Please model this.
Amino acid sequence: MVKFQDVQLDRTFSALADPTRRALLARLEREDGLSVSELAKPFPVSLPAIMKHLDVLSDAGLLTRSKVGRTVSCHLNAEPMEEAMGWLARYQRFWTERLDALEALLEARRKGQD
Amino acid sequence: MVKFQDVQLDRTFSALADPTRRALLARLEREDGLSVSELAKPFPVSLPAIMKHLDVLSDAGLLTRSKVGRTVSCHLNAEPMEEAMGWLARYQRFWTERLDALEALLEARRKGQD
DNA sequence: CGTAAACTTAACTCAATGGTTAAGTTTCAA
DNA sequence: TTGAAACTTAACCATTGAGTTAAGTTTACG
Model:
């Protein structure tokens, strides 16, 4: 095997690529344990459409569900995001360097004005 | 309009959801300014397939291209990743809290053993 | 000038996504 | 026990995505 394909990272990024799914996660970040229908309510799409989004989020490991009676509670699991952050962090220098340069410039100016 | 849809974030995450595209970016992170064919060489797919990936990366603003003669140099632009990091950062507490808890536990144990 | 290198475009295929409506299933409650 | 609430499943549809091969364009060079 030449190349290890990081399927988990694929699934995480692709789950996050949809605005509806990001909104669902954002909702759970503020208020965990909402039911499927409560989660679905704000969106202008059908319940089965939301179900599919929840399936995608579950497959990516970003969501767990627990059934009590006839209602299903949804729980955020942010852990897979850690790897995504880790991947992105490698590129952080490309914008922090820029900020550092700006800060250095501003610092130099400030000193010049003393 | 009820909801602002962040098209840039959609494009960034969906560009990053493909392992070939992530590999292309990783390559440019180490060695900027590679030509299209140099970039394509390591991959087991046709040149037009790579072209399409480069188009996706360009549309997401993650790549710029500059032509000199008949060769096209590719340049990484990591800036759009900043927003993606920002979005993810909101969830960072879910794993750093866990780590903090673990560290606290280990610290407590260490003290107990003194 | 003619050919080859380095892309680029076009046309096509196939599978996956994101949505729909309609028809289940299970559980609660009057 | 009957009906409604809260999902779930199935079947379908249109669009997009990732790949292909084949043909076209532009630039360099002997």
Summary: The CA atoms of residues 35 and 72 of chain A lie 5 Å apart.
